[in-house]
Design a protein that fits this description.
Blueprint lengths: L2 E4 L14 E12 L2 E12 L3 E5 L6 H8 L7 E8 L4 H4 L1 H7 E4 L10 H10 L36 H14 L4 E5 L7 H13 L3 E5 L3 H7 L2 E5 L3 E2 L1
Parallel strand pairs: 4-8, 4-9, 6-7, 7-8
Antiparallel strand pairs: 1-9, 2-3, 2-5, 3-10
The structure holds adenosine-5'-triphosphate.
């Protein structure tokens, strides 16, 4: 198990992209099912920055994203994650999840329509203070190549690629500080992939982005964290 961090950052023209650290990961270690997936993983990300996670299958990329999103603690035995200098415990899990958004790799199977899901999200108690601050998901539709009525269709009739993009734009509209992207273009054709990459590139959140595509890293630009095969304990 080895971790390397490559710095291939492009100058970022994101609005207000001061070098303020938003997300900081310090000495994070994870062992699961008798294997050490990674240890002493350390990096910090500033507003707007893209950090790609590249690693073989089964090396813990999804577990890492879920842990950063306060969705998974099993196996994480050391280290800490800070958002604006505060731990998950200090900020509270609900607050953390409103600010750090995990975009699922799998197809979403919510009941009803995306428009209804979005209304539920903004009316959740912990979103109330941000209710006036959210963006309109419909404003992102054409930028990611979706039809104008995509938010009004039932989730169940959307294709995998449509559902993936709809889930993404609902998250964007809630203005997270950090986006955790688990192969966000895996179900998309090449042209739509580029559309989504451009939207994400210009969105001023930290993006922690799992990809298997070197071409994607070259197009988008950003730092790379490489995790290698797990070690048997
Ligand atoms: N909740 C869990 N409990 C126990 N083991 C788990 C859990 N989730 C994942 N694992 C195990 O942890 C390891 C890493 O899984 P993870 O899904 O993070 O890999 P990955 O790098 O994202 O793989 P892929 O590229 O195939 O999606 C795997 O061996 C998996 O079986």
């Amino acid at each position: 198990m080895e971790i390397s961090v490559l710095d291939k950052r492009e100058p970022c023209d994101c609005e207000n992209s001061a070098n303020e650290v938003v997300l900081s990961v310090q000495n994070l270690g994870c062992a699961i099912l008798g294997k050490q997936l990674f240890s002493k993983l350390t990096f910090a990300a500033s507003r707007g920055e893209v950090i790609f996670i590249k690693a073989p299958s089964g090396s813990g990329k999804t577990l890492l994203l879920k842990h950063l999103g306060a969705l998974q603690t099993t196996g994480f035995h050391s280290g800490e994650v800070l958002l604006g200098g505060q731990t998950i415990q200090e900020l509270g899990v609900a607050n953390w999840r409103t600010r750090v958004s995990y975009i699922w790799q799998q197809r979403i199977e919510f009941p009803g329509t995306p428009a209804e899901t979005f209304q539920e999200l903004v009316s959740l108690k912990f979103q109330k203070q941000r209710q006036q601050l959210h963006l309109r998901p419909e404003d992102f539709l054409s930028a990611v190549g979706l039809e104008p009525d995509a938010l009004e269709k039932e989730w169940r009739v959307l294709s995998g690629g449509q559902s993936q993009r709809v889930a993404l734009i609902l998250s964007l509209a809630l203005k997270p500080d950090v986006l955790l992207l688990d192969e966000p273009t895996s179900g998309l054709d090449p042209d739509t992939t580029v559309l989504v990459e451009t939207v994400l590139q210009n969105f001023p959140a930290v993006k922690i982005w799992v990809t298997h595509s070197p071409e994607q890293v070259d197009r988008v630009g950003g730092r790379e964290i490489h995790l290698t095969e797990p070690i048997e304990l």
